[in-house]
Amino acid sequence: ETGVTQSPTHLIKTRGQQVTLRCSSQSGHNTVSWYQQALGQGPQFIFQYYREEENGRGNFPPRFSGLQFPNYSSELNVNALELDDSALYLCASFAAGGLETQYFGPGTRLLVL
Amino acid sequence: AQSVTQLDSQVPVFEEAPVELRCNYSSSVSVYLFWYVQYPNQGLQLLLKYLSGSTLVKGINGFEAEFNKSQTSFHLRKPSVHISDTAEYFCAVRRGSTGFQKLVFGTGTRLLVSP
């Protein structure tokens, strides 16, 4: 157990809809990263939040956005869903500023029809 | 920018046999290296990591890996596998410094252990 939880575990949406995925980090972890893992692929970095502000972003369009809250929870929002957004979405939390390991949650599997 | 290559998409092996999963990376700066395991329908679990110091790193579940800077490799090994080791294994790299910590993953190697 990593102490990182995600909800929901599974989700089905249709093209064009919007979705919000949630992550609850370990207490004391001030940084959260989000990754997209398509079927048969390794995780791809989406973005990272440090103390409630985005401080790094991968090669994902602006319709992928996020929020981080003071209570160690965070959200990933995806607008205008496309079929290719179907994937496992993973969040990872850690305490930035040193060499802390990233602890991953179990993921949310999103299916876009 | 960093990148990771896992040459073997799938490695079949018999129970109690040794196994090596290969990982090569490219980077123009110093890096930290990681191996994660993903069991079916689960998230990622850290097996081991190399940050500095001894190039032979020991992890959980009897796994170990050796950092080879000249060959830019970080191969994962286990002397005797169990059925329960069947899973997807990911090698990952990040810039070797404090601050922004983006992980770059390989495409994964599926380890299939049979009786």
Task: Estimate the mean pLDDT confidence of chain B.
Answer: 92
**Number of strand elements of chain B:** 12
Average pLDDT taken over every residue of chain A: 91
How is the quaternary structure best described? heterodimer
Largest interface, C-beta within 8 A = A-B, 30 and 24 residues
Helix and strand succession of chain A? EEEEEEEEEEE
Q: So what's the overall shape of chain A?
A: globular
Largest sheet of chain B: 6 strands, mixed
Annotation field: number of helices of chain A:
0
Q: Portion of residues in helices of chain B? A: under 10%
Describe, in plain words, how this protein is organized in 3D.
The complex is a heterodimer of chains A (113) and B (115). Chain A contains no helices and eleven strands. In chain A, 0% of the residues lie in helices and 51% in strands. In chain A, strands 2, 4, 5, 6, 9, 10 and 11 form a seven-stranded mixed sheet that branches. In chain A, a hairpin with an 8-residue loop joins strand 9 (87-94) and strand 10. Chain B is mainly β and 115 residues long. Chain B has strands at residues 3-5, 10-14, 19-21, 24-26, 31-38, 44-50, 56-58, 64-68, 73-78, 87-95, 104-105, 109-114. Chain B is globular and about 45 Å long. The chains are: A mainly beta (113), B mainly beta (115). Chain A binds chain B through residues 2, 4, 6, 31, 33, 35, 40-45, 48, 55-56, 58, 90, 92, 94, 96-99, 101-107, and chain B through 4, 32, 34, 36, 42-46, 49, 51, 90, 92, 98-108.
